[in-house]
Task: inverse folding
């Protein structure tokens, strides 16, 4: 089929609107010739010549006909697969049809790892790869091209394109197969890097690249082949930046608890990866206004201690990573303080800080942040006879009047509160109420304006809530047992959609989750080996594994007024 070609004037000749750049213009000389001869005949031959050249230069999918589902196949390899005594530095592959090469630098896995880099040159049906340095002697190499080669018509990837050769007299043939999953969800991990590392006293996954490596398929399975006998560390990680190294801040990792010996290691290991960020806390960023001065840390904070060199200031942990100082003394001088924070791993970080508030100007007249509150449960949500409420403020509360608080049953009966009924945190930014009620109807709660006064002398508008008393028949129960567990543990009820923790029950068997709304859930068992009441991710640099996690294999589908029994964990 001949494609239509559109032309437009270009100087003294014509230009083709589409097509290869090499044939966009017809030279003026050609048309000078056409003036001397038969103008019409010469022009026709010129157009025919250009159409033919365009058809040769432009490769595209044929229109119509059956869809091409056949992937490209290797027609020639240099060296041939399973070659021994290979001494070259050039590898060539030819295919039986035209191909495109897709991101060869990332798709090609070379194991064991090579020294230096490689360059490659592409051809319509193949590729030539030139390596910078010689291969190591007496070593078996595997080049796994994965999905690097695809045909030009339907982009069908060539399958199982591998090249194995040895620089010695024999080929290594040992193999290791296994699976990689997410520790906290038990889901298979696609495209995880799996590596074997030669045993060394100085080995760190963040500094040493694997000797043998491969990547997982969509089911999380991996297959390491053509390995030499030896003793290795086995690890898997999500290599986000493709540098074959573990990035402690961004990448999930798993490793076998002990070095393995091949041959002799007969297990099919399941490596369960998780984020184990061990990066140290760093100097915080600062943010100053005329009213506040904030320290913003790159990692979360669990506690704060501040020692002032002179005048002191009130402060609070406002967010998980932000400390805010309040200018209650209208200071314009620089104040000095030593600030010690502790992260979730129990590590302390101390920095000497200069605290200086910005001089007040016209733009600071209305920059005070309004006092805001978030509460649980929200108005309209069901509650139990044991009334529980939590309120979180965006700045410290300096004055609180519990006598203004009203809790009542349908405006009939009030419950009186005292200051002891409210449990405040250390920074006065959060409180909890827990009080048993004898109500049988909807519960109304009212916190009038002026109940809470902040450190900046502002308040919130009246907070009004109406919460129905929970109807047990609209909810269900999930229960089970934990068997053969010698350590402390926690059973977690999770959302099946995103594995968000809904509730947790520590060290209790049988366990029971009551008043659970209808829906689909997951269950997870956390082994608290160090008895600190939380799950710990371990330390890969010190070969300390994360605390074990067991995810219940089935989804828990709960209906209203149902009790699901027998959701048991056993080690």
Result:
């Amino acid at each position: 089929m001949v494609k239509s070609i559109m032309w437009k004037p270009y100087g003294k000749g014509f230009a083709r609107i589409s097509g290869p750049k090499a044939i966009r213009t017809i030279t003026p000389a050609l048309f000078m010739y056409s003036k001397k001869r038969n103008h019409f005949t010469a022009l026709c031959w010129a157009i025919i010549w250009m159409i033919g050249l365009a058809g040769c230069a432009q490769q595209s999918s044929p229109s119509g006909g059956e869809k091409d589902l056949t992937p490209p196949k290797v027609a020639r390899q240099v060296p041939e697969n399973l070659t021994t005594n290979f001494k070259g530095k050039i590898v060539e592959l030819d295919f039986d049809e035209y191909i495109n090469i897709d991101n060869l630098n990332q798709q090609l896995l070379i194991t064991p790892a090579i020294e230096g880099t490689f360059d490659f040159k592409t051809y319509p049906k193949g590729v030539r790869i030139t390596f910078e340095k010689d291969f190591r002697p007496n070593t078996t190499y595997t080049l796994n091209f994965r999905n690097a080669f695809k045909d030009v018509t339907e982009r069908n990837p060539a399958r199982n394109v591998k090249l194995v050769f040895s620089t010695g007299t024999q080929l290594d043939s040992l193999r290791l197969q296994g699976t990689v999953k997410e520790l906290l969800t038990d889901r298979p991990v696609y495209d995880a890097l799996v590596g074997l590392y030669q045993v060394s006293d100085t080995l760190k996954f963040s500094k040493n690249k694997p000797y043998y490596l491969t990547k997982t398929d969509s089911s999380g399975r991996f297959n390491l082949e053509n390995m030499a006998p030896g003793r290795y560390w086995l690890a898997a990680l999500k290599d986000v930046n493709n540098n074959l190294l573990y990035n402690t801040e961004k990448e999930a990792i798993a490793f076998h608890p002990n070095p393995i010996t091949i041959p002799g290691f007969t297990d099919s290991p399941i490596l369960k990866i998780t984020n184990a960020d061990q990066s140290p806390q760093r100097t915080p960023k600062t943010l100053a206004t005329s009213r506040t001065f904030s320290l913003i840390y790159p990692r979360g904070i669990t506690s704060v201690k501040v020692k002032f060199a002179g005048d002191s200031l009130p402060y609070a942990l406002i967010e998980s990573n932000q400390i805010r100082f309040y200018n209650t003394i209208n200071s314009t001088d620089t104040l000095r303080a030593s600030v010690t924070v502790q992260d979730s791993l129990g590590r302390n970080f101390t920095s000497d800080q200069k605290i200086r508030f910005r001089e007040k100007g016209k733009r600071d007249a209305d920059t005070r942040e309004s006092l805001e509150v978030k509460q649980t449960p929200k108005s309209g949500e069901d509650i139990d006879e044991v009334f529980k409420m939590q309120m979180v403020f965006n700045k410290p509360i300096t004055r609180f009047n519990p006598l203004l608080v009203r809790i009542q049953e349908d405006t009939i009966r009030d419950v009186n509160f005292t200051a002891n009924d409210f449990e405040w945190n250390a920074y006065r930014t959060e409180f909890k109420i827990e009080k048993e009620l004898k109500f049988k109807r909807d519960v109304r709660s009212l916190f009038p304006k002026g109940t809470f006064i902040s450190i900046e002398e502002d308040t919130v508008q009246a907070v009004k809530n109406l919460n129905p008393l929970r109807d047990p028949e609209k909810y269900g129960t999930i229960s089970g047992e934990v068997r053969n567990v010698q350590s402390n543990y926690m059973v977690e009820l999770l959302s099946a959609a995103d594995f968000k923790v809904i509730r947790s029950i520590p060290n209790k068997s049988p366990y029971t989750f009551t008043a659970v709304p209808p829906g689909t859930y997951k269950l997870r068992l956390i082994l608290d080996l160090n008895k600190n009441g939380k799950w710990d991710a371990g330390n890969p640099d010190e070969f300390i594994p994360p605390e074990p996690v067991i995810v219940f294999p089935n989804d828990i589908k709960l209906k209203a007024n149902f009790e699901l029994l027998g959701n048991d964990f056993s080690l």
